[in-house]
Amino acid sequence: MTPITPDLALDFTRDIYSVARLASEVRAVLDGSFPSIWVRGEISNLALPASGHCYFSLKDEAAQVRCAMFRAKRLLLGFRPENGQQVLVRARVTLYEARGDFQLVVEHMEPGGEGALRMELERLKRRLAAEGLFAESAKRPLPAFPRQVGLITSPTGAAVHDLLTVLGRRCPALPVLIYPAQVQGTAAAASLVAALTLANRRAECDVLILARGGGSLEDLNAFNDESLARAIRASRIPVVSGVGHEVDTTIADLAADRRGATPSAAAELVAPAAEHLAQRVAALRARLGHLQGRLIEGAGLRLAAVLRQLALLHPAARLESRAQHLDELDRRLAEAMQRHLRGARARLEPRALSLAAVSPARRLGLAAASLDGLRARLHWAQSRALGRLQERLGRALTGLDARSPLATLARGYAIVTRLPDGQILRDPTQAPPGTRIEARLAQGVLHALVDSPENVNPRRVLGRK
């Protein structure tokens, strides 16, 4: 048994708290000392468990406190809490006894500062998007080569200097007209709408640039105005926005026909680069010359081919060919006659020599008469040979005409075919009643419908027995 020491004896006179009792009494003190209070801070360590409750820390630059918002209150929120968001909460100060954590039980929460402004901006974006104000199909194309550019911005800000610098560098000959407007403050949105309306009424420019430099969300608030967005969509002139920095996206950017991430980027979208245009013109000129040369070369080749084909099909070419053949026949005939005459002369010369040797007058006369007879025979033989040749040619032509189907048709015959397959009919059984037939005559074609076929002896048709 443990002996009682003086220290243990003192325990009977002390009021010793258990941890649970201490936590309970501290909670009672906190619950009774602080009514519902309003606290502003930034959300961190956000947790959204499946139970539907919401746990997070609320912090500022110097301290933080744990917070709990139970499901029944969270369902009444009009937004979704996020880490880094500034909020304003109404809460009860209490202690979470299980862990001994000092915490706030949040009963109401609303966005605070810029967070509220961003939420209102998101609601406006969704509403205007639902109306189709940001639809890509409604946006107008920018002119490739504007005649004059209008700038809607502050004439004293840094944005106008950037715009003029970029426009002057890319296209020095492009005229620029400035429509002065306020770009910050409560009257800025109305000023921008008025400048946009004036630019449309005067219709001096082909494209407008709506621009200002960077700034906070409050600084850019004029470019999130609903009336400005509707004025941009109502503009008859295409509008390019160049508001803030690349990370800034305003409602004016969404409503504009094109968006530049910065004022300088907006100017580059509008102004064609002079150097690029010169290079493109040179490339197009070279391409045009090349294509023109190819077209001319191709047209020349086609023309030469057509002329060759025309020369081959021209009647004069065929006549020339026939004339050349006729000349060849005439030459051959002349050569044959010369050979025949040379042969006759060769045969005559020995006799002439014999006559000359004898040289009696009577025999000379007879020889002369014989010579005349031979000459006559020669001419007769020549005529007869020509006649035989002409006769053979006539027989050949007659035979050719006799074998020609056209000659057969010319004698009163016809070629009968069955329609629509075009089969030549040789027997009446090949064309039953109702068959459509075609009879080809010497001077045309007859179409007929078979009434009744009849087999007839061809000898009887030709008048034979």
Percent strand equals 15-25%
Helix content: 40-55%
Helix/strand/pairing class, anyone? Answer: alpha/beta
CATH topology of the largest domain: Rossmann fold
As laid out across the biggest beta sheet, the strand order is 1-2-3-5-4
Whole-number count of domains:
5
Count of discrete alpha- or pi-helical segments spanning 4 or more residues: 14
Task: Name the CATH homologous superfamily of the largest domain.
Answer: Hypothetical protein af1403, domain 2
Average the pLDDT over all residues and give the rounded result: 82
Sequence stretches where pLDDT stays below 50 over 5 or more residues:
461-465
The backbone outline, from C-alpha atoms, is elongated
Give the name of the CATH architecture of the largest domain: 3-Layer(aba) Sandwich
Number of strands: 14
**What's the assembly state of these chains?**
single chain
N to C succession of SSEs:
HHEEEHEEHEHEHEHEHEHHHHHEEEEH
Main location: cytoplasm
EC number: 3.1.11.6
Family: Belongs to the XseA family.
Domain OB-fold nucleic acid binding: 17-110
Task: Characterize the structure shown.
- The C terminus is likely disordered.
- Helix 5 packs parallel to helix 9, helix 6 packs parallel to helix 7 and helix 11 runs antiparallel to helix 12.
- The relative contact order is 0.05.
- The protein has 14 helices and 14 strands.
- Strand 9, helix 8 and strand 10 form a beta-alpha-beta unit.
- With 465 residues, it is an alpha/beta fold.
